[in-house]
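Appendix B.2, paired examples.
Example (i):
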Amino acid sequence: MTTPIKEQIEAKLREARIARDERAKNVIGMLKAKVLNELKSGSGAEENDTLWLDTIKSYAKQMRKALPDYEKAGERGLDLLSEAKWEIEFCEQFLPQKLDEAATEAIVRQVAAANKITDPKMIGKLTGLIMKDHKDALDGDLLRQVAQRVLAE
């Protein structure tokens, strides 16, 4: 059985405190605050791996969306850009690993053949069918690229 994410986070926090790693402590503090806000929001959320995963995914996604803005800022945004990339990398250690391009292509070809999807205009249907069963295992952007390439053949 795998270690619950909360315990993994607490272990990383202990390591960060010992190493005096302010960046790690800040990210963990942010994640813990977001989880606490969700628990207090009245949504009925329970503290479990699902809540932690959703919170970490959401934070990493937020940081990814900020990257283009930091890049546009030029030299002024370099520190923010490197910090955001570091935070994304830190968060990804807790998230399940996504399938690579070859495995994604195998799934795309299998589902396309099983549903007789050959028209590039049906990419939405194809990706919908795939995501229904493989949402957590696939990167959506990679899936879209692979599906476009496969259907264009």
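Example (ii):
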Amino acid sequence: MNPTTRWTLGILAAVVIAMLLFFWIRSDPKPAPTKGAVATQPATPKAEPAAPKADGPVTVMIFFDYNQSAVRPGEAAKLDELAARAKSQASDRLEAVGHADRIGGPDYNLGLSKRRAEAVRTYLAGKGVEAKRVRAESKGEAEAVTGDACKNMGPESRENRKLIECLQRDRRVEVKLAAR
């Protein structure tokens, strides 16, 4: 092969590689990182209150952030609907049972689950439900729903984000609207 052909093939290969890289990089733009506060969970659209039903109890699950007892904005719509239903049925009572994940000591988790149940009671009272109709109870980490799904995920600490995400379903308050 003569030198001119070799140079032509080399330049042609370089141009083809450059074009492929250009289109590959251009087709997968990365979003620019944002600065500022951590993004919050978007609020769910306000649900219309459910029509009162006389058949059986209603249970609503309210989930909480790690180590927090404040009702998340995304969970408020569930409580709004439940409050509307509870106000229309004066003879019913509500039971708010708080739970925590297994990270932390049993005594701390029992107190945290109690604060979560009380936060739900306070929220419902703010929506017009008589606070004395809401019984707040705490279970701590005793009734986990994740079971073995989150085993062997590393150390049980607040630095283990993977484990914290896996245990999300354990950080909850179960609110039950039941007939007396």
